[in-house]
Amino acid sequence: MAKTEKQIGILTAGGDSPGLNAAIRGVGKAAQGHYGMQLIGFRDGFRGLVENRSVRLVGDSLSGILTKGGTILGTSRDKPHKMQVEGKLCDMTDAIVENYQANRLDALVCLGGGGTQKNALRLKERGLNVLTLPKTIDNDVALTDTTFGFDTALGIATDAIDRLHSTAHSHHRIIVVEIMGHRAGWLALGAGLAGGADVILIPEIPYHVEHIAKAIRARVKGGKSFSIVAVAEGALSVEQRAHVAHLEAQREVSGEKAERRRLKGAIQALASDYANNTLRLSTQLEELTGLESRITILGHLQRGGTPSAADRLLATRLGAACAQLIQLGHYGVMVAARGEGVVPVALEEVAGNKKLIPLDHPWLEAARMVGTSLGE
Ligand code: F6P
User: To bridge 226 with a disulfide, which of 6, 115, 168, 187 should be the other Cys (CB 3.0-4.6 Å)?
Assistant: First the structure.
């Protein structure tokens, strides 16, 4: 086995996710133990690299972290090219390049979701040897079968739906359970199917509230006086989606920069107003069915705690493969999961390319076949 003295930087960026520590350990143990490389961790995402806040990850620091939630390095949503510094948004890419060089890094490993892939590509374009691993509970990173964090969150959300069943049943209520996922419905659809939700609403399929109410009333007629509605945080009604499309069309034709900015803000506000959208849905269902409705927002519970076995396994496989790619000098890629194996995918192909649920996806077909309403 050829030994090298390569020096690797590693950071975790974006929202935290179960399996991050397993991935840090996977990269680190393989890089150090197998290839004799050195590993430096940067704190709190890209900000730590800008501010050169680092920690040497040697021997013991990688032990005992496999089962831990969160990230031992800390994380942030800071972007290298748009970072808040003394109250102003600044491009800090030069500082990153300087610190990369000052630390004599041969490669930088960035563990993150969609935003991190874009940031990593920018650093690649500045000449850094960057690699990424796909992490997010949303499972919305392109060109990888799955992302670590998703399986754990799926288990938590499914368990929540299981628990909500008995209380909804006892009180003859509707319970609307809001599930994370940003603009993608993977988590809501997966947990909704696994937990037997009666209605599943996802961003990929705008819903008709009357159709949902009809499905719930049909359940009542059939003797089921309760219903569980699993709603992805980014799901929108047909009317809301049409309104967003209208604002987008206005933005498209508007020649004024300030107006375009205003419209962008209005679109984002509508699409990200998760709590209000969920509340509106619950209220409408009460009015249309005559049943009492309650809301449960699972929120950050879905990201906390011990990673599942599947996430630890995935993170370890991807981490070890990442070290191997560094040894081979193969940079500028995301280490993607493909079947039982792992493939490097060019960052250009991944960045800005969100993986939504295709409308012919087998999970959707299964949902329809078992009689789940998708609000279509
Ligand atoms: O991207 C992961 C995610 O958990 C989304 O599902 C959710 O919309 C978002 O992060 C929440 O972000 P924050 O941790 O900044 O509240």
Answer: 168
